[in-house]
Amino acid sequence: MELDWDVVDAFLQKQIKHKPAFTTGVSEINELLKSHSIDKVFVNLDQRRMQDQFNEWLSIASKKNIPKHIKSIYFGLFSMVDPDNEDNGITTIHFCGSPVTPQDDDDWACEVPKSFFPGERYLVLDDFIILDENTKALDVDPDVEVLVFNGLLNLLVLNSVTTVLKKILANHKEVYLGTGFDAGDTYVLGRLTEKGIL
Question: Is 179 exposed, middle or buried (0-12, 13-18, 19+ CB in 10 A)?
Answer without folding.
Answer: buried
